[in-house]
Amino acid sequence: MATYNLAIELGTSNTVIYVAGLGVALKEPSCIAIETVNKKKVVKCVGTEAKNLVGKTNNSVEVHFPICEGVIYNFQYAKLMLKEFLKKISPSGILKPKKRVVFIHPCGLTRDEKNRIRDLAYALNITTTALIPSTVCALIGMEVEENDPNSHFVLNIGGGVTDISIINNNHIIRGATINVGGNQIDANISDFVKNEFQVILGDNTLEKIKNSVGSLLNNDISSINVVGLEIDTRHRKEIRIFSKDILPIICGAFNKIADACEALLNMCSSEVLSDINKFGVYVCGGVANITGVDKYLSKILNLPVYVDVDPDSSVIMGAGNLLNNQVLLNNICKELKG
Asked: Per CATH, is 6-137+314-337 categorized as 3.30.420.40?
């Protein structure tokens, strides 16, 4: 029986690493800055440092996000980024001799996309890998009992994608991954600001707007002042964004998520639907922090909806629980291979 000592979530927005016995050892943006020095490309920095360079570099530095919509988009930069992250949590190479890693992934990955993760692991001398869907980890992280015979509906709404699964006994019986997430919401807010105010906002500012005033409540009166550049003059301009301004954008994203949920429910047996009617929908992921998620989805789906207390951490904490329960982890791996 393999004993795993690391869990890694290579997300579109963030990479999170859990070390068995220690807990979450790293959570940083999935970002890498590459600098050209004497015609050679070298790693300048990764994670938070790299993301802070967005829009602030000269021509010799490029900032890349190698994970796109939950998939390894640029293999070489993903490898360099993860290598640096592993150095951060183990600078002396203490984990090097027997690195056995659980990789968390969207449930809708193709075989080729999963093989890309395995190739990445091999390139970093990781001896043994287990690929576990994010929603399976999330359900465990939300402390649903091991070997629970009931079926459960789980939504993981992340930066690049939303993972939707119906799970029974830690096995996905219905699942889908859709390209709706925080990054798409940010892009739509950017388009709105350009059209409404003729102002360009940076990526970090767009994310701040979403996190600060993003809401699914019609009566939300929150607002935020941000600074951008006028499209015509390139002059600095401060604008005020209200929650109601971006409400149609937030609703549009969640309507797509709800449509996908309903499509999945329509494929279920009456027995599974009975369980879901009883236990409702469990929601996690960074975008689940948006105000009113539970009420909005509950009204559309006509089901109870529960947002985890710490939705950002549900997936990685579930993976950590698996590291601490190697018997369950190996049983899940066997089930997935089967």
From this structure: yes
